[in-house]
Design a protein that fits this description.
Its cofactor is Mn(2+). The protein has seven helices and ten strands. By secondary structure, it is an alpha/beta fold. It starts with 8 loop residues before the first strand and ends with a helix. Bound molecules: uridine-diphosphate-N-acetylgalactosamine and manganese (II) ion.
């Protein structure tokens, strides 16, 4: 329930949402949810938004920041009061790995340009997920990461960190706290700016040296969290994979990964 640096690990039952709601409503907190739907990944948008309307930060001011190269394919969904969809047109990249990695640069650029004036916190997630249970202000903190569903009970040796010293994402074998998922992190706009800025510049350093970390943006994110510890850690309740058998400790699944046909959506 707590990391060795005293950051709460969020499991169901570890907090009282009424107390937290009272505090966050008092602050009139505004939340930005960033998501990327580039090329064929626009197919995930409808379910993403519809389920977020049902479960994500209900009752709060929410801006969905949708980065896409296919503005015309954005679904037309009526949103609840106080919620709006902001479509940001961006270029696409050829390789899916690069599409995934470039999210860091685009979140960084928009954090200083736009998000800082519009919201207090950012939550940055993959588009191929659906919300299946409540996600509220309990997740908000200066900077947070999420335990990857595939590794939360695994020993450190099994974490798929970047292990080549030549990469800026390298993590020595005797270091590393958790294996964090690339597809679910956030924090204040200032903290997300620092995180994305670090990840993007380390990726560019590697690009210059013709090396790319094993799990792309996820590897650089893990490197960042090693030396800039998250102030909250979300349990895999927040990002579950239904291909994994549900363990006893997992009482709720707040969002789950939507199965995808890799060949069909990642059109090489
Ligand atoms: C759940 C989770 O932790 N997912 C991470 C995982 O793989 P995933 O297999 O979940 O990666 P993915 O295919 O979902 O790609 C990541 C994200 O990039 C966007 N996208 C990608 C390709 C494309 O053509 N169009 C597009 O919009 C989209 O928002 C997608 O959700 O590892 C990736 C790096 O290898 C990223 O760190 C993902 O965040
Ligand atoms: Mn994904």
């Amino acid at each position: 329930m707590m990391t060795p640096w005293f950051a709460p690990i969020l499991w169901d039952g570890s907090y009282n949402i009424d107390i937290l709601n009272a505090q966050f409503h008092q602050r009139h907190v505004r939340i930005g949810l960033t998501v990327f739907a580039i090329k064929k990944y626009t197919v995930f948008m409808k379910t993403f938004i519809e389920t977020a309307e049902k479960f994500f930060m209900v009752g709060y001011k929410v801006n969905y920041y949708v980065f896409t190269d296919r503005v015309k394919e954005m679904p037309n969904i009526t949103l609840a009061d106080g919620r709006q969809l902001v479509v940001l047109e961006v270029p696409s990249y050829k390789r899916w790995q690069e599409v995934s990695m470039r999210r860091m640069e685009m979140i960084r650029d928009n954090s200083s340009k736009r998000f800082i004036n519009e919201v207090d916190y950012l939550v940055c997630v993959d588009v191929d997920i659906k919300f299946t249970d409540e996600v509220g202000v309990e997740i908000l903190s200066d900077v947070f990461g999420t335990l990857h569903p595939g590794y939360f009970r695994a020993p450190r040796e099994h974490f798929t960190y970047e292990r080549r010293k030549a990469s800026a994402a390298y993590i020595p074998p005797d270091e590393g706290d958790f294996y964090y998922a690339g597809g679910y992190f956030g924090g204040t706009v200032e903290e997300v700016y620092m995180l994305t800025s670090f990840c993007h510049s380390e990726m560019m350093t590697d690009k210059g040296n013709n090396i790319e970390a094993i799990w792309h943006d996820e590897s650089y994110l893990n490197k960042y969290f090693l030396y800039h510890k998250p102030t909250k850690v979300l349990s895999p309740e927040y990002l579950w994979d239904d291909n994994i058998e549900v363990p006893e400790v997992l009482k709720r699944r707040r969002s789950v990964i939507v199965p995808k046909n890799y060949n069909a959506v990642r059109n090489r």
